[in-house]
């Protein structure tokens, strides 16, 4: 980083303490060149803050109430595609699951790093993404190359592709053992809506109950 270089960043994560930690670690503008101009805890907040502040880089968690990181990317697509000063996204997540990585990269994120990254490396990653580079945690880089460039890449999971993004979120939470009320609270929807999503998932996957659903999700490393 040059002495006078600056990058404006928005933090999107549903855990306030994590956002506070990242802010403390990288948000000392005079030292790092990173200026945190906004924060958000769910999809709607993220879209509102990103649209209002037009940062250079968004640090985006994958699992968010309201539709997940992929939904943020979908709704912010015009900002990513802007001819001048496009907003670029760097996924910052605890998850290294294949579905999560591929989902956000297909959605338009410029990279994906896990929350084990150091503050120094995260600052470096932010500036690289601002420059248009693709950035991945070392363990994920080879996987991403295989998934997108190799002729031997695993085929698309047609069963999973039948599900909407919201249905996938409900599926993941059911498989983790959450009760319907807990899922409703997590996703800001009603219990009745959760029940409707579960019914749709069971029908589309041709499963009979949540126990079969959990085994199905576990076999695909979605949990």
TrEMBL record:
State the superkingdom: Bacteria
Which CDD domains does this one have?
Answer: LuxR_C_like, REC_NarL-like
Residues folding into a coiled coil are none
Q: Which residues form the Response regulatory domain?
A: 8-130
Record InterPro entries = CheY-like_superfamily, NreC/VraR/RcsB-like_REC, Sig_transdc_resp-reg_C-effctor, Sig_transdc_resp-reg_receiver, Tscrpt_reg_LuxR_C, WalR-like
A Pfam family hit: Response_reg
Q: Which residues form the HTH luxR-type domain?
A: 156-221
Query: What are the UniProt keywords, alphabetically?
Result: DNA-binding, Phosphoprotein
Instruction: State whether keyword ATP-binding applies.
Output: no
Which residues does this entry mark as bearing 4-aspartylphosphate? 61
> Which PANTHER family has this protein been placed in?
TWO-COMPONENT RESPONSE REGULATOR
Q: State what protein this is by name.
A: Response regulator transcription factor
Q: Which organism is it from?
A: Streptomyces enissocaesilis
